[in-house]
Specification:
Elements: H1 2-21, H2 32-45, E1 48-59, E2 62-73, E3 77-83, E4 89-96, E5 99-104, E6 109-114, H3 117-120, H4 130-137, E7 148-154, E8 159-166, E9 171-177, E10 184-191, E11 194-206, E12 209-219, E13 224-235, E14 253-256
Parallel strand pairs: 6-14
Antiparallel strand pairs: 1-2, 1-13, 2-3, 3-4, 4-5, 5-6, 7-8, 8-9, 9-10, 10-11, 11-12, 12-13
Length: 258
C-alpha cells in the first residue's frame, strides 16, 4: 500500500514539474502601427523630469562615476549638477537651446559657447546632442519616421521585436518589447553610421508612468557606454524660470568654448 501511494505521489510530482517547464505561449503581437502609436503617445505624455542619479561614463580616455542632479526637458533643455560625496556641487552644466554653460566652482571658471556634441564630453559621451541626451535621460530614444514597420515574436529573447525601417534614408531600428508589460526593454538605432543600443530596466511606478530607473546606452564601435541609475525622480514636474539658467557667479573668470 505504501509503495502504491509513493508511486502515485511521484507521478503527480513529475506531472507538475513537466507542466512547470512548459513554455508559455505568447499572445499574438498587435499590429506594428499600434505599438508605434503607444511609443508616440508616451513621448508626447512624458515631457521632462527632475531627478537624482548615479551616472557612469566609459569612453576612450574618459571614465567617470558620479552622483548627478538631473533636470531634463524636451526637446533639448538639460541641467546637470555633479555632486561631491558630501553633496556639494562640483560642476554645473546647462544646455539651453543652442547655448551651453558650464561652471567649475573649484576653479571659479565659467564656460560658455554653442551646445555642440564635443562640448558635451565634459560630462556625457562624445557625439550626443542635447536632444538625444534628453531623450535617453527620459527613458526614450529617437523614433524613426517609419516607412515600413513589422513586428514578430522572438522566442529566444521572449520579446516582440518591432522592426522600423526607412529605405529612403537607409535607416533602421529594432525595438524589443515585453509582451506582458508592453515595456520597451531595448532599442537599437544608428547615428552617423554608428550603431547605438539602449537598454531599460528596473521599472517602477511613477504616476502615471512605469519608468525605467536604470538606463544603459552603448555605442560599441565608439567604445562608449553610459549608465544612469535613478535614486529619485519626479516626472513632468513644475518648472521654475531659473531651472535652465546659469548666471555668471561674481568674480568668476569667463572662458569662451570654441
Amino acid at each position: 500500500m505504501r509503495k502504491r501511494v509513493f508511486s502515485l505521489l511521484l507521478l503527480l510530482f513529475l506531472g507538475f514539474a513537466a507542466c512547470a517547464t512548459l513554455p508559455r505561449e505568447p499572445s499574438p503581437p498587435p499590429a506594428a502601427e499600434e505599438l508605434l502609436e503607444r511609443l508616440r503617445f508616451r513621448s508626447q505624455a512624458l515631457q521632462g523630469l527632475k531627478g537624482l542619479a548615479y551616472v557612469r561614463v566609459s569612453a576612450p580616455g574618459k571614465n567617470f562615476i558620479g552622483q548627478e542632479v538631473i533636470f531634463a526637458r524636451r526637446p533639448g533643455l538639460l541641467r546637470l549638477e555633479t555632486l561631491s560625496p558630501l553633496g556639494n556641487p562640483l560642476l554645473y552644466f546647462v544646455a539651453a537651446g543652442q547655448e551651453l554653460f558650464l561652471y567649475h566652482p573649484g576653479e571659479n571658471r565659467y564656460y560658455q559657447g554653442a551646445a555642440l556634441p564635443r562640448h558635451f564630453s565634459a560630462l556625457l559621451p562624445a557625439g550626443l546632442e542635447p536632444e538625444e541626451a534628453v531623450l535617453i535621460l527620459l527613458g526614450d530614444f529617437p523614433l524613426l519616421a517609419s516607412e515600413e514597420a513589422s513586428v514578430r515574436y522572438e522566442p529566444r529573447e521572449g520579446l516582440w521585436l518591432l522592426d522600423v525601417q526607412s529605405p529612403a534614408r537607409g535607416s533602421r531600428q529594432v525595438i524589443g518589447i515585453d509582451p506582458q508589460s508592453r515595456e520597451v526593454l531595448f532599442a537599437e538605432y544608428s547615428r552617423e553610421g554608428l550603431t547605438r543600443r539602449l537598454s531599460f530596466s528596473d521599472f517602477k511606478a511613477v504616476s502615471p508612468f512605469s519608468f525605467p530607473h536604470k538606463i544603459h546606452f552603448a555605442s560599441p564601435a565608439a567604445r562608449t557606454e553610459l549608465t544612469v541609475e535613478y535614486q529619485e525622480v519626479t516626472l513632468n514636474p513644475e518648472w521654475e524660470a531659473h531651472d535652465f539658467r546659469l548666471p555668471v557667479p561674481k568674480g568668476a573668470q569667463v572662458v569662451p568654448l570654441e
